[in-house]
Amino acid sequence: MADSRDPQDTPHDETDFPYGELDVPRGIGRRGFLAVGAGAMLCTIGGKKIALTKPGDAAKADAAAAMVMRPSSVPAKKPATGVPGADPVDKLTFGTPDPQPGCDVQEYWIQATQTLWDIIPSRPRRDQWMGTNLPGPSVFRACVYQQMSDGFAEPVGPAAMPGPILQARVGDVIKVHFRNGLPEASNQAVTMHPHGVRYNPEYDASYLGDFTRAGGYIAPGEEFTYTWECLPESVGVWPYHDHGPNHVLNTFRGMFGALIIRDRDEKAPDVEQVLFFHQMAPPITGLSRNYEAVNGRAYAGNTPTIRSKVGQDVAIHVIGMDNDFHDFHMHGHRWRKDGTGIFTDTPSLGPNETITARFIEDNPGRWLYHCHVFSHMDAGMAGWYIVEP
Question: What is the pLDDT of residues 152-205, one digit of tens each?
């Protein structure tokens, strides 16, 4: 079980969320030096590269994305036809797949929304691992996926990072009713693009310029239903994320989540946790320092705390969700690498890559997990794993 504190439960004051002035520290120590050292990022919008090097640059990229409109020759909700460079495949139409005989439709209602997100929700802001307080604001305006009840009637849970885990088995189809609930003034078209499952071009959820299909551009207030097939080769844990015109920034802001696809007769583990390793940099958040985060939180006591008992079947899935390469180390434990008989305790993963640590628990105590890239763990990419006898 992970620590699932809702950031909305934490009171915010004006110093938490600096819309204008940034809280820049006068002196920077060793940890601050590593935390501020976020490299420049680039995103491409409408064919133009936009550098993100300092707080506030994300707003400029948003303005550029707002200028990316549906081409006049690509009406909303229709496939591309008659545009320059169009190919016969662009005129194809596609049906909606059904589940295999004896299998099910796994139906979800998901909304894109904004929320004030606290990267360090503990008060005082604190790193339990090093026993130190962490001064400075840690709240920014995130974009996330939120699960809703049928018909988007009401939220099922809080707006959180990552988005809800979508689960299915081989032979099922996943039907996602998606609504863009971002403010109209944001002009942010967003989507929900999956990895691992099978989909036709209508359900790809990717913005493709003149060739964009209906599912690749969902404007504020619009809705679209995606349908994805779960094949035998879909078994595993996969990310989903925004792939609209401004997908890079929106993914950095928190628009990502996980799919878990199992075999028909596969037993789920007793304890299962998905961890996203990702950077939250000043150009994205508007804050004065870089945070290396796990599921949108930074530093032990704020990041997810995983709990299990001796004898339980434990599976921890780690997904990279930024530009960097990470690795996953958990003290006191080792497990077999996927598909091999070789044991490991620090496997590496790249952007949108998943690794799984699965084992039968036999070692009680409080254990640390973290990325073993030293600057990453020192800037917050660490947490607790607690095993009861």
Answer: 999 999 999 999 999 999 999 999 999 999 999 988 999 999 999 999 999 999
Picking from 383, 372, 373, the residue whose alpha carbon sits closest to that of residue 329 is 372
In terms of residue numbers, what domain contains 170? 99-122+137-266
Residues 63 and 108 in one domain: no
Domain end position, chosen among 228, 248, 266: 266
pLDDT digits (tens, 9 = 90+) for 78-131: 556 678 888 999 999 999 999 999 999 999 999 999 999 999 999 999 999 999
Answer yes or no: do 188 and 143 share one domain. yes
Is 87 contained in some domain? no
Q: How confident is the model at residue 338 (pLDDT cuts 50, 70, 90)?
A: confident
Are 227 and 111 part of one and the same domain?
yes
Does residue 206 share a domain with residue 278? no
Closest of 217, 281, 224, 275 to residue 243, by C-alpha: 217
Question: Which of 141, 124, 162 has the alpha carbon at shortest distance from 8?
Answer: 141
CATH value at residue 374: 2.60.40.420
Same-domain pairing of 245 and 289: no
Rounded average pLDDT over 9-23: 37
In a domain, 237, yes or no: yes
Report residue 54 as tokens: 């300092």
Over the stretch 210-246, which tens digit does the pLDDT of each residue have?
999 999 999 999 999 999 999 999 999 999 999 999 9
